[in-house]
Design a protein that fits this description.
Shape: flat
Distance between the termini: 59 Å
Number of helices: 4
Number of strands: 0
Oligomer: single chain
Largest sheet: none
Length: about 120
């Protein structure tokens, strides 16, 4: 049992290390991740200071985190496409554009949530 627990801990440890390495690489290489961090830095104080319900606050905060996750997925798609080919190709462009669209849709969801909450608060 002890060996099994040690193996599970090692697997968890390595997953954390690899995830951190991915985050650091994206932070260093992708300007758009920094832009979404700034957007979250603006959104989070409002979510914490406005008189929101717990559910509203959770939705806003979770959607902010999901935008970051979408950006990480998009970056992974871009890197895979670039590994396969640097040539201009319709499918490569579509893959990259679809990843970008995924980030945009996630951000749109956050905007819709903010709009719905602000309408409830001020109308």
């Amino acid at each position: 049992m002890k060996n099994w627990l040690n193996a599970q801990w090692d697997r968890f440890k390595w997953r954390c290390i690899w995830s951190w390495e991915g985050w650091v690489n994206c932070w260093q290489e992708e300007h758009s991740l920094k832009q979404w961090i700034v957007a979250n830095a603006v959104s989070i104080p409002f979510a914490l200071l406005l008189p929101l319900t717990g559910g509203e606050r959770a939705v806003i905060l979770a959607l902010g985190v999901l935008i970051l996750a979408a950006e990480l997925f998009n970056t992974a798609i871009e890197r895979c496409v670039d590994l396969i080919t640097q040539e201009k190709h319709d499918l490569a462009k579509q893959a990259k554009d679809l990843g970008s669209a995924g980030v945009a849709v996630t951000a749109l969801a956050a905007g819709v949530a903010w709009a719905a909450i602000l309408v409830r608060l001020y109308l």
